[in-house]
Amino acid sequence: MDHDARPTPLHGVPRLSLGALSGLLAGYAAIAVAELVSAAVRPESGPVIAVGGAAIDRTPPAVKDWAIQKFGTDDKLVLQLGILAVLTVLALVVGALATRWRLLGSLGVLAFGVIGAAAATSRPDSSSVSDALPSVVGALVGACLLYWLIGKLGRSGRAATPAAPVTGPGATADDDGDPAPAHPQDEGWDRRGFILTATAAAAASTGAGLAGRALNGSQGQNAVASRKDVVLPAPSSRAAAVPKGAALRVKDISPYMTPNGDFYRVDTALVVPKVDATRWKLRIHGKGVSRERTLSFDDLLKMPLVERNITLTCVSNEVGGPYVGNARWIGVRLADLLEECGVRPPSKGGPADQLVARSVDGMTIGSPVDEVMDGRDALLAVGMNGEPLPFEHGFPVRMLVPGLYGYVSACKWIKDIELTTFDAYDSYWVKRDWAQRAPIKTESRIDTPKPFARPKAGTVMVAGVAWAQHRGIDKVEVRVDDGPWEEARLAAEDTRDTWRQWSYAWQAGKGGHTLTVRATDRTGETQTEKRTRTIPDGASGWHSVVVTVD
Question: Model-level pTM?
Answer without folding.
Answer: 0.82
